[in-house]
What we know:
The chain has helices at about 15-25, 85-100, 165-175, 240-250, 305, 310-315; strands at about 5-15, 30-35, 40-50, 60-65, 75-85, 110, 115-120, 125-130, 155-165, 180-185, 195-200, 210-215, 230-235, 260, 265-270, 275-285. It is of the alpha+beta class. The protein has one domain (about 5-315): 2,3-Dihydroxybiphenyl 1,2-Dioxygenase, domain 1 (Roll), CATH 3.10.180.10. The strands form 2 sheets. Strands 2-3-4-1-13-16-15-14 form an 8-stranded mixed β-sheet. Strands 6-7-8-5-9-12-11-10 form an 8-stranded mixed β-sheet, with helices on one face. Strand 11 (about 195-200) and strand 12 form a beta hairpin. Pfam families: Glyoxalase. This is Ring-cleaving dioxygenase. InterPro entries: Extradiol_RC_dioxygenase, Glyas_Bleomycin-R_OHBP_Dase, Glyas_Fos-R_dOase_dom, VOC_core.
Amino acid sequence: MELKGIHHVSAITANAKNNYQFYTEILGMRLVKKSVNQDDACMYHLFYADEIGNPGTDLTFFEIVRAGHTYEGNNSISLTSLRVSDDDALVYWKKRLEQYGVDHDEIKQQFGRSILHFRDPEGQRLALVSDQTNNGVKAGVPWAKSPVPTAKGITGLGPVKLTVPDPSPTVKVITDVLGFRYVDSYPSPLVGQPEMEVYETGEGGTGAEVHIEHRTDIPKERPGRGSVHHVAFRVNDEEELAAWHDKVKKARMPNSGLVDRYYFQSLYFREPNGILFELATDGPGFATDEDVEHLGEKLALPPFLEDKRMQIEANLTRLDTNCN
Length: 324
């Protein structure tokens, strides 16, 4: 068995309307599913992705209206990166972020690639990474109706960064249990800090990497709006997910058991530094209950929540996505 790469990253927003405007109108991603948190149906769960929500392209958000400020720190998923086609696309994006007043850094080189760090209005730590030199997991396809030109559009999720006080137990889980391979290391952008270590799975490349940052100079992160809840890795199908479940149990790691998310099947567990991992199947996908042309326009509920639709809708603030 081998994980195929990153499946999705789920984060926290305190304002679904503003979140929707930023990720669709400025970043040009497509809202492929407007649903609710299946474990707490009083909050939105929004899925932004490529043209049809291909696995490996989903950045999702739970709306927690009263979410406070994030105090950045250890034991966290401290960076989510988004893939673009090449270095020229990053030049376009730097100008676009400036045009919309988005907080950003300069384009720089990191691990042999061009990268542009920026923050969304709630402080979500993001980066655009160029696929110019990438040889690995295939990228997605930007939505043709995006306000961003297709050639410059976001094509999927890039590497995620984990910040931990002791990398050894995290590394043991991702290599011995999940089968990631050590690739190389590169200098930390912070003076005096250990090098960042890179691990990959599947075909490797930007869509299948985890970067581990070792920090002993900061406290544990206090999550809130603008923080990441979990990262999910790609599993081919339900049969393989069941085998992964057996492997995680044999490693004596407490886990959720198999969970039906309707659009995919999942397994959740925490690694020793407290970071939540999910393994998720590639299918059946977001077109299961909506036509591809109209993804994300209406509130979509899995069958096991459909009988509660009126109650769920009454507890949600209206979010108009019909122009998606």
